[in-house]
Write a structure and sequence with these properties.
The complex is a heterodimer of chains A (134) and B (86). With 134 residues, chain A is mostly helical. Helices cover 63% and strands 0% of the residues of chain A. The model of chain A has no long low-confidence stretch (mean pLDDT 81). Classes of the chains: A mainly alpha (134), B mainly alpha (86).
Chain lengths: 134, 86
Amino acid sequence: MVALRFLRALSLVRCSGPGARSPSYRARGIRRAAYACMAASAGPRRAWSRALLRKIRRRPGRGLRRPRAVIRRRRPVGGGDPLEVALRRLVPGGGCMEYCRLLEEAADYVKCLAMQVRLMQTIVDSASHVNSID
Amino acid sequence: MSGRGRRITDEEINELISKLQALLPAESRRRNAGRMSASKLLKETCSYIKSLHREVDDLSDRLAGLMTTMDSNSPQAEIIRGLLRS
């Protein structure tokens, strides 16, 4: 499912003609698409996927901004262990959850990230292989 | 939803630690034979997540570069376009 989503997103990236941008801009778009597809495929069940989608959809200039009063902000868990703090920063949405939940979310996030990397590597390998055929 | 309203048992934490350890790459598991301490696991998980983030960045760059070949009308570009359309 995530493969289909990502391939579709890639096909929307403009490569030439009006609206085409520099490769580094494209790379940023591809990166954003990768995280968005990963999160969308994981679904709203996971805190990390919800947090990732919120962050991506919150890009400046995109759509209406919710008035600040409506935005719920949970107080982040105070850190004791610097390693725990580091993990909370790396896992999207990890700041406010209890420790047990953080480990669960981290495990799921790692699994999905590794899958996304494998998917992108496969696409790069196929495309490079096709490029080298002559 | 700030909590489940009950104490988290040690077994639950241990189970999660084993589960997380199983997800780490093989070299990391070999380096740390047997059960890791919680702090070692956190450290390995953090560095693994960081390396995965770096790989996504790197692969995004490579994909962006490869897609410039789609600008041309070569047969290779057509095949790549077909890959993405299907």
